[in-house]
Amino acid sequence: MDWEPREQDIEWTKNVLDSLEVNQDWMEGEMAFRRTGDATLALLTRTERAEDAVDRVKQVLDVLEWELDEENVKVIPDDPIAAAQVMQQEAESWMCPHCNEERVVNMPLENSVWSIQGQTNYVDDEGHTNSHDRWVVGVVCNCGETVHLSPDDYYLVAGEVNFYTWNYADEEGRIFSARVMSPEQIVECVDEGFMDKLNAQHLGSSLGDHVVPPHMRGTYCLFVEREAGEEE
Ligand SMILES: [Zn+2]
Q1: 102 CA from centroid of ligand 1 (Å)
Q2: Closest CA to 178 of 145, 142, 204, 153
Q3: From the CB of residue 121, how many other CB atoms can be counted at a distance below 10 Å?
């Protein structure tokens, strides 16, 4: 390969590395890295076709005297259906990191709690460091400990319906669920004349004291109170 890193490639990568804390992840194109030490980066995942891209990152890291650990990389097939299957299988094998006895997929995933935990930094194409809220989804294991998943990981284990259901507590501590209505459901309710009887509304970016998770903003939701102790 006759690719040579340019000065700006080296500079840009250095900015990214400087902004990463140990154990923080860096997504770049179809690659995911994690800083594992002072000058070490582990490649977590890449697609099949990102092989050359990884080689280029490695060349830049060589110049910066960083090491790339590729020992545990998961290679994701380029074919989207095969890739989805690999991710799904992987997600089904996740265990509770606290007791290591319960599979995440078997936890009461419908009782999830979305919250913001700090900020994620990223460097844009112009080399500016930006940050945005880092959302996590908490589910409680049988062992009593809360497992925090990234929104993407939660989607993988819990599926679309749970992903588009947001649970929150009101001032009195009652638990409500906002469930995104599909266009078909909305049409059906309008046709049947149910719409004004339903507790349904558009979600904005906040509701009471709550910040609404980004994927729920602008959706039309049905609000239902969850019965105390509702567990499936
Ligand atoms: Zn557990």
Answers
A1: 6
A2: 204
A3: 16
Cα of 144 from ligand 1 centre, angstroms:
7
Would you call 108 helix, strand, or coil by DSSP?
coil
> How far does residue 143's CA lie from ligand 1's centre (Å)?
4
The residues whose Cβ lies within 5 A of ligand 1, an ion, are 96, 98-99, 102, 141, 143
Q: Is residue 81 part of a domain?
A: no
Q: Same structural domain for residues 177 and 154? A: no
Residue range(s) defining the domain that contains residue 21? 7-76
**pLDDT string in tens for the chain (232-residue length):** 578 999 999 999 999 999 999 998 898 999 999 999 999 999 999 999 999 999 999 999 999 999 999 999 999 999 989 988 888 888 999 999 999 999 999 999 999 999 999 888 777 878 788 888 999 999 999 999 999 999 999 999 999 999 999 999 988 889 999 999 998 988 888 888 877 778 888 999 999 899 999 999 999 999 999 876 544 4
